[in-house]
Specification:
6-stranded antiparallel beta barrel, Elongation Factor Tu (Ef-tu), domain 3, 12 strands, 6-stranded parallel beta sheet, alpha/beta
Length: 313
């Protein structure tokens, strides 16, 4: 597979393409790309997936808070795993946003050799959001580009969309989000110094910082996680919140207690995979109750993680 930049050009009539943000790269996206590849193969052309560097909402409405499911690097990695022939990243600019659908199809034809455009089941493009799929087909026919609609994903967890997945993660429903995406929700950062409260309780934690501010965090609470750090995959539990029992103030933290592990990992990159929700964060009566709760959380997390790992084969 070849990754293109927007300044690259492709031969005329050489590609069948689809376009979208693909945030979360979920099961619906996988269905779309599979259909795209079959269409391209049938015509002896290359399959081209086009995605944006930034989400259109972040560009058009920068004053409105909006969080992404995954980083650009993770998104490109997951799109590569779907194995199209070509992957193109476009910079979504205000100028690009002003193109109507006809001009956009023309741009794809002239720059990237698109002869067929596969539209997602409910995807819209171009600044006139009131246009229908029939309008896209009409514009395409006038420009010599066939526009077809991909089949709807009809799997066990349908319907699925990036919007639905954002809502699930924001609510802490990471198991449901995992089913929609086909893999766990991930967050990557760096191990930084925190309050160092956990070690005194018998639950040493690594504080995860330097997480991109435009990424969506799961709802405050405790989660069973798999942590990838230093070339190892470790079981653990993560708390997202403000540690109300310890009165550490309003600052949000992400702390992970890694099971059967006590190496020094400060400064190292770490990625958390959220496997299951354990409980909401709440203020307890004191340190003894907190230790009891953490012990119970660890037991539940071990059980859930072992069940998940066993199910993965």
């Amino acid at each position: 597979m070849r990754i293109l930049g927007e300044n690259d050009r492709l031969p005329q009539g050489s590609t069948v393409a689809t376009i979208g943000m693909f945030d979360g790269v979920h099961q619906g996206h996988a269905t779309l790309v599979d259909f795209l590849k079959r269409q391209a193969t049938a015509q002896g052309k290359q399959s081209l997936v086009i995605t944006f560097l930034s989400h259109p909402r972040q560009v058009l409405h920068p004053d409105q808070p909006f969080k992404l499911i995954m980083s650009l690097g993770d998104r490109l990695s997951q799109l590569q795993a779907l194995d199209p022939d070509l992957l193109l990243t476009l910079d979504f600019t205000p100028e690009l946003a002003q193109l109507d659908s006809a001009r956009f199809i023309e741009l794809l034809r002239d720059r990237y050799g698109v002869t067929e455009l596969v539209a997602g089941y409910n995807h819209r493009f171009g600044h006139n959001r009131g246009e229908t799929f029939g309008d896209y087909c009409r514009h395409g026919e006038q420009l010599g580009v066939k526009v077809v609609k991909a089949p709807e994903y009809l799997g066990q967890y349908a319907p699925v969309s990036s919007t639905i997945i954002r809502g699930l993660i924001a609510a802490g429903r990471v198991v449901d989000a995992m089913h929609c995406m086909g893999r766990p929700h991930r967050l990557s950062g760096k191990v930084v110094h925190g309050f160092h409260n956990g070690r005194g309780l018998g639950f040493p934690t690594a504080n995860v910082g330097e997480i991109a501010t435009n990424l969506l965090l799961p709802h405050n609470g405790a989660y069973a996680v798999l942590a990838h750090v230093g070339g190892r995959c470790l079981q653990g539990m993560t708390n997202i919140g403000c540690r109300p029992t310890l009165d550490n103030g309003p600052q949000l933290s992400i702390e992970v207690n890694l099971f059967d592990f006590d190496d020094d990992i400060y400064g190292k990159d770490i990625t958390l995979e959220f496997i299951s929700f354990l409980r909401l964060e709440f203020k307890m009566c004191g340190l003894d109750e907190l230790k009891q709760q953490l012990t119970l959380d660890r037991e539940n997390a071990r059980r859930l993680l072992n069940e998940y790992i066993k199910a993965q084969g």
